[in-house]
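Can't paste images in this forum, so I'm doing it all in text. The chain is below; anyone willing to post the predicted structure tokens underneath?
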Amino acid sequence: MTSARLHQILGLIDEANSHDPTILNDGGMKGPAELIYGQRSSAMLERYDTDASELLCIAARGHHIERWKSPRRSFPEGRVGYLKWRTELRSYHARRCGELMEQAGYSADEIARAGQLIRKECLSSDREVQTLEDVICLVFLQYYADAFIAPHDDEKVIDILVKTARKVSPAGIQAAAAIPMSRRLSTLLTAALSGDGLKADQTPNSL
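Text version of the structure:
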């Protein structure tokens, strides 16, 4: 059963994300882009991990909170600028979620733990952080990958997918097999997963 405070914090995150000026019109859904993204992330987590903790549920809903307030163009071009942008985004998302969690009555320890999840600390050793990373990648594949890869040639897309898949657990790779996707994306993802860049036990039986 959803706790009262979890219901409250998810509502607070949704309210914050409802102010996203970017309106998404996709797959029958229309509304503020980050609001839809957060709700899609929650739905994916619910399917992927039916025993997800309350704090992981918060991290899934809020790991992109108010993302539009720190656009990529605010940071220098190139990889160094990109990495700085990503690092500062995660810190902002964790801090903003923490502020709302405090309003909903969460303890300092709970807020700190949610922040660890959102910042994706100890990805290689923290099961919940890995679960969140898997969910993020699955949401990307189902809802956003086709538009993202459209401008790129096949070789570039395979490289992107290999780098994405390296962050995903074997269970996440298996879950990707059930994600509905276009023929092009499915073909290129299969090519990426069959390459030498992934561990053999990460390759699903079919996609």
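The longest strand covers residues 23-26. The first helix runs from residue 4 to 17.
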